[in-house]
Amino acid sequence: MNFVLSNGKSVPVIIETRRGMRNVTLRPKTVPECEIHISKPWATPDAFVMKFIESKRKWIEKIFDAAPAKEHLKSGDIIEFLGRMVQIIHDPTMRGNKYIDSDKMRLCIGGGDDMFEHRVRDFIRDEFLSTVKEIIKTTPREYWPTRISLRDTTSRWGSCSSNGNISLSWRLAFAPYDVMRYVVMHELAHRKHMDHSPEFWATVGQLYGFGVERAKRWLSKNGTTLHKYF
């Protein structure tokens, strides 16, 4: 099911039916792709849902219009990740992917044209995970997670479960290094405090050092820009 915007773009409508609900709720999503998410009571027909979406057209289109456009990568482009400005070079004769200078400012991606962006994305994910592990090793061992998972989430940058597993959005690779490090320390602090109490924030400060509020403000203001690629 799709909803056609005034500019002619067709946006998928994702409907979730929930027992016990009394009203229809609507949530436009702009990352990683534009979608309209609907939760509705069991007995509410889809035709009513579409009329409800139509009644919210101006609001929905305002949100989508403000969303950053996706940027597609091509050989020679320079992008920033993990605190470095890196030029991406495509060499279809190569089988692997690797940095081609000692300061890691040029990255050569092998394989066919059709998999170019996919391979860049996977390389950045792997580099992000390695960097996260290095950051974790700077903290006392009692904060180390039992497992690290990477996600491509839009509603949260990280989470920590009661069994010590942490999950992080790999798109933090595109954030400034100190912001990425803040999110890691935030989740590690949950190893001691599964809440956001004053004690929790004190622990974040101990692990991260000065600048916690600055990193939080950056994410709040610029978080959507981390989804402009892929």
Considering the chains and any ligands shown, give keywords for the structure.
230 residues, alpha/beta, Zincin-like, 2 domains, four-stranded mixed beta sheet, 11 strands
Tell me what the structure shows.
By secondary structure, this protein is of the alpha/beta class. The chain has 2 domains: 2-66, no CATH class; 78-227, Zincin-like (2-Layer Sandwich), CATH 3.30.2010.10. Helix content is 33%, strand content 24%. It is built from 6 helices and 11 strands. It has helices spanning 46-55, 57-66, 116-136, 177-189, 198-208, 212-222; strands at residues 2-4, 10-18, 25-29, 35-41, 78-81, 84-90, 97-99, 106-109, 147-151, 158-160, 165-169. Strands 1-2-4-3 form a 4-stranded mixed sheet. A 4-stranded mixed sheet has the order 5-6-8-7, covered by helices on one side. Strands 9-11-10 form a 3-stranded mixed sheet, with helices on one face. Helix 4 (177-189) packs across helix 5. The radius of gyration is 21 Å and the shape is globular. The two termini are 24 Å apart. The model has no long low-confidence stretch (mean pLDDT 94).
CATH superfamily of the largest domain: Metalloproteases ("zincins"), catalytic domain
Percent of residues in beta strands: 15-25%
CATH level 3 topology of the largest domain: Zincin-like
In the predicted model, the low-confidence regions spanning at least 5 consecutive residues are none
The ordered H/E elements are EEEEHHEEEEHEEEHHH
Helix fraction, binned, reads 25-40%
| Whole-number tally of structural domains | 2
Determine Rg (CA atoms, Å).
21 Å
| SSE-based structural type | alpha/beta
Shape call: globular
